[in-house]
Inverse folding.
């Protein structure tokens, strides 16, 4: 990891135990991506969290992390073929959503 410290890390050093865990949790995706030398935008984070939520609610909760892993592998493969990361991620999410049942809403209740 780089020697540059983020403002969140500085705040974490000065915070109490519960505040520290909130700072670390909020900053986790950026810190993990940096440690792996991977690019991760706020839009990527939101898209992947949305994908995980949709899969957890549309299939089984345990498949949410696996689905984001598979999406990541797909994105890497598509990028190697020349696609942009954002286009490849959008494609992976569209495929996942096409395989999930429609969400239950007041207008569309669950089938019996």
């Amino acid at each position: 990891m780089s020697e540059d410290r983020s403002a969140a890390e500085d705040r974490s050093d000065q915070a109490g135990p519960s505040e520290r865990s909130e700072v670390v949790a909020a900053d986790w995706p950026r810190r993990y991506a940096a440690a792996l030398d991977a690019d991760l935008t706020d839009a990527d984070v939101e898209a992947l969290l949305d994908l995980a939520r949709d899969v957890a609610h549309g299939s089984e909760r345990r498949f949410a992390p696996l689905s984001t892993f598979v999406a990541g592998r797909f994105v890497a493969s598509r990028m190697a073929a020349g696609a942009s990361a954002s286009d490849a991620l959008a494609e992976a999410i569209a495929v996942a959503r096409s395989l999930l049942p429609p969400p239950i809403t007041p207008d569309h209740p669950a089938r019996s």
User: Anything to note?
Assistant: The first helix runs from residue 7 to 14. The two ends are 52 Å apart (CA to CA). Residues 75 and 81 are 10 Å apart (CA to CA).
